[in-house]
Amino acid sequence: MASPNQNIDQFKVLIAGGSLVGLGLALAFERAGIDYELFEKGEFATQLGASIGIHPHTIRILEQLGVWGDIEKQVIPLQDRNHYDGNGYCFEESHVLVNIHEILKRPIIFMERCKALEVLYSHVKDKSKLHDHTAVSGYEETADGVIVTTEDGKQHHGHILIGADGIHSKVRKLMADKISATDAPLAKEINEAFTSEYNCIFAVSRNDPEKQFLPDAMVHNVYYHKHSAVAASGVHGLVFWFLFVKAAQVTRTPNCPRFTDEDAEKTIEKYGSSQVGPGYTVKDLWDARVKGTMVPLEEGVIKKWSHNRVVLMGDSVSKATINPGLGGNLAYEGIARLTNGLVPLLRESPIPSLEQLTGVFDQYFAGQKPRSDTVVDISGQITRYEAQDSWVLKFAARHVVPWVSDKLKAKLYASFSRGGPHLEYLPLPAIDADVAEST
After folding, report:
1. What is the residue extent of each domain of the chain?
2. How far are the Cα atoms of 214, 284, 286, 289, 291 from residue 239, in angstroms, in the given order?
């Protein structure tokens, strides 16, 4: 019988998921000259999802991909951060964001998620590779490739499948099902890898220039008991904000809750009177919202990121709470590490063996899992710190952390950020030579 991949004489990647990770992969492969097809169950540049924080090490990758210029035009780099208690007292005025910008020569920004998606999508040269409203329903592996079936019944042939389809990853579930045939405990671990202890309402609201909730480039943090809030004005006329609330009980995937608009309204009724910054409350922000939704904050890192010709990326392998805004940036680190392994392999072996591909997947895992573990751990600590989850954290917030200099905090962050990878097969921006010389 002829191989179902007999007509594929060029290495092809199949990607499930067309959000920030999938589109980032598409651009990375296009720049590397690697053939691919991407399948997204919904629309590209969807209005779902309120905002995305982008950090300096991700900006470097976006510069390499040629998309940062279009993003930079839309944003205002964050500069100042004020920390308040529940009585409206500002106990820390921080300029750490300015210090980070000075050290790394790149800012930390917040923007609408849909606008970031629009920019990424617009830079993909060959749109015929992008298939919207085309959900992956299954896959089968052959001796020399993988066959993906989509919900419209069509089959697509490639050499590897990347699951970049988020926390509710269909590809992860399919991969776990394959693994369960030989290792049921491992499959169970993969399916139940994430827990949720906090819930979050995240939204975008109008920030009327005539009566702003907070000035442009400003971040407000407010600390309560078992809940907290953050508001950031990273785009003129808008404020991105988050309400974090400790849940009544810890849940675990696949049984973490799904919330409705009614659930969000009830949460606002309960916590809406909480001040976020001087002169405005959670309810004020909610009433001025452009869009908003409520989600559980899953946390965790799965134990196995690949199986044969399938490899996972982004929220499908690691999920951090969103307080420091590092989760999406982890995904771009993953894009860099995986493509950095594939590009030289394909130059050497245009149609690599499963053993060679496994080596690349293992290298990607070994490089990225420690970063994921660190981010998930630190993010969880920050969530609990801001929600004053214990007297120790409350004491630290009021009497320890404010006395640590912004410059020291910025240096610690810069050390972490510098550890992020870049795309080794594309030129580094000129600015990085200056940064390297100053360290």
Report:
1. 12-194+299-438
2. 8, 12, 11, 9, 11
pLDDT in tens, 62-102: 999 999 999 999 999 999 999 999 999 999 999 999 999 99
Q: How far apart are the first and last CA of the chain?
A: 60
Do residues 232 and 75 touch, judged by C-beta distance below 8 A?
Answer: no
Residue 88 Rama label (left phi>0; alpha psi -120 to 50; beta): left
The phi and psi torsions of 77 (rounded to 5 degrees) equal -55, 135
Alpha helices in 209-252 (DSSP H): none
CATH architecture of 12-194+299-438: 3-Layer(bba) Sandwich (3.50)
* Residue 254, CA atoms < 13 Å, CB-side half-sphere: 11
Two tokens, residue 248: 């009544």
Helices (H), 192-281: 261-271
Give the helix/strand (H/E) hosting 337. Answer: helix 327-348
Q: Is 32 helix (H, G, I), strand (E, B) or coil?
A: helix
Please give the distance of CA 407 from its chain centroid, rounded to a whole number.
26
**pLDDT per residue as tens digits for the range 161-194:** 999 999 999 999 999 999 999 999 999 999 999 9
The per-residue DSSP string of 290-330 comes to EEEEEEEEEEEE-S--EETTEEE-GGGTEE--STT--HHHH
Which phi and psi (to 5°) does residue 332 adopt? -70, -30
- Model confidence, pTM: 0.94
d(CA 312, CA 310): 7
Question: By C-alpha distance, which of 413, 303, 418, 322 is closest to 365?
Answer: 303
Beta carbons of 221 and 386 less than 8 angstroms apart: yes
Q: What is the pLDDT of residues 366-424, one digit of tens each?
A: 999 999 999 999 999 999 999 999 999 989 988 899 999 999 999 999 999 999 999 99
Residue carrying the six token digits 């500069």: 79
Q: What is the mean pLDDT of residues 3-31?
A: 85
